[in-house]
Amino acid sequence: MKERFITGLDIGTSYIRAVTGQFNPQDNNFYIIGCGEVPSAGISKGIIVSIEDAVSSITSCLEQSERMIGSPIERVFVGISGAQIITQESKGVVTVSRANGEIREDDVDRAVQAAQAVATPPNYEILHVIPKGFVIDNQSGIKDPIGMTGIRLEVATQIILGLSSQIKNLTKAVYRTGVEIDDLVLSVLANAEGVLAKRQKELGVALVNIGESTTAVAIFEEGDLLNTFVIPLGSNHITADIAIGLRTSLDVAESIKLEYGQAVSENVNKKEEINLGDFSESESENVSLRYISEIIEARVEEIFDLVDKELIKLDRSGLLPAGIILTGGGAQLPGIVEVAKKRFRLPASVGLPLNINTAIDKINNLSFTTAIGLAYWGASSVGREPSKMFNLPSIKSLADFGGKAQKWLKSLLRF
User: How high is the pLDDT of residue 411?
Assistant: First the structure.
């Protein structure tokens, strides 16, 4: 099979990023050879608000990556995020169809299909159906039932749903750039594919992706996705707080955050000051760096406290041995790991992509973790099912989403 390019497309609120690579089955490595990054237009809080502007931005981003790889990009793995993403749990039960009781792939498919037969909220579409565990004749804790013997097969699943209008507008914007969509993936799940080790997922871990307008969280335990949710706060809210606190413009506030931002106010000398005139000719006031740090710390603590409230609902607050992994552009803020350790009462660290093979220095920026994760998701799919990978049904028709979710099962089972 001729090697093809695999591209992850992260459509964010402030930036659109693309990462292109090639999977090499001979040495089992995925090589990133191209990337693109352009400011977003027509996108607000992860939602398309102007198709024309979004198409222009996506096209510019893909063109950057195409220039680096010297070839046109024809297919992409697209990330979807936003506060409109919801999850619900469901179970499916079927009788094993064979006389000898051996469970095959089609039995698993039927069980997952049965789990999808649940009432979904109006105007929502299924994005992912993720099996969490199987039960065979009341024997629980089974991860992969294929090849086992039994009469009754039950599956517990996590169903992830997206707002139909959001999905339609996102897919329309991508298709109008002239590329096909290989897969539409929840961004934080793709991120987890790139930055979380298998052992972390087994022990129990929370991946916290701090974006521009939202913070997406995925919680894993015993190798399974326990839950995922989105907090409607992100790094842009920190910038807005600084702008209000200093009575200055958002552009000045963003520059101050990037250059002098510190999430732990105790680490800043009380006597240190900066002059706003260094950032804008219309400003001349001196402000305390400790005061700026206190503003940042308050908002970071609020974001983490909202995440911890969700962990409390799941009875996992302070109980995830692998701790908190921070990713996304907001995770670059100095001192944020220290705040996370304090608020969550757990180990915390910054999540960098695992086993990355690239000569592009820009890729090492935390802002690229989602795009890298989407490319990893695609590379992983290619590595597992090369014969089926490129024959996925088109998702131009949203009516096909339920059936498409079933076809994802094999890759999701090994997620």
Answer: 45
